[in-house]
């Protein structure tokens, strides 16, 4: 699919076709897209947890209670190693969250290119998710996404006009 068409097609999906599993081949393509994402100083502090097990999904309901989320065949937790990530010398800004965002965006667009639906979720309790997923203390779960084939077409999304968000030379 042509890139502009892809970014226009991509939507947040909250209903999945349960009759269509996500193959290992397609899942690998999506994960590979995240692996190839750039990161600050190429440190690559991103970790992805692939969740298919119904028991683990059930446990995760303690961190995020939206039932639609758990109907997807796959859930991916996007994590970062806070300690390993690059930090800006001027103010100690930690690029870990930016690195994860880039990798997750690659993952989500690759999923859309394969006909899969996703929905970027940050409205969950990260401490609970980290405990359930047994992540080490230096690793933070930043975002979650369900992954599966959409059940139907999502509604058209409304976006601001370009002139509302682009500034030239100064704000």
Sheet-strand content, in percent, reads 15-25%
Question: What best-fitting shape do the alpha-carbon axes yield?
Answer: globular
Give the CATH architecture. 3-Layer(aba) Sandwich
> What Rg is obtained from the alpha carbons, in whole angstroms?
17 Å
Low-pLDDT regions:
none
Topology order in helix (H) and strand (E) letters: HHEHEHEHE
Mean pLDDT: 96
| Number of beta-strand segments | 4
End-to-end span in angstroms? 35 Å
Placed side by side, the strands forming the largest sheet appear as: 1-2-4-3
Count of discrete domains = 1
SS class: alpha+beta
Describe the largest sheet. 4 strands, antiparallel
Overall CATH class: Alpha Beta
The percent range for helix content is 25-40%
Per CATH, the superfamily is NADH Oxidase
Question: How many helical elements?
Answer: 5
In CATH, the topology is named NADH Oxidase
Q: Could you characterize the architecture of this molecule?
A:
With 171 residues, this protein is α+β, with helices and mostly antiparallel strands. It has one domain: NADH Oxidase. The chain contains five helices and four strands; from the N terminus they run H-H-E-H-E-H-E-H-E. Strands 1-2-4-3 form a four-stranded antiparallel beta sheet, with helices on both faces. Helix 2 packs antiparallel against helix 4. It starts with a helix and ends in a 23-residue tail after the last strand.
Give a topology summary.
Blueprint: H1 3-9, H2 24-35, E1 46-51, H3 54-60, E2 74-81, H4 96-113, E3 117-118, H5 126-132, E4 139-148
Antiparallel strand pairs: 1-2, 2-4, 3-4
Helix pairs in contact: 2-4
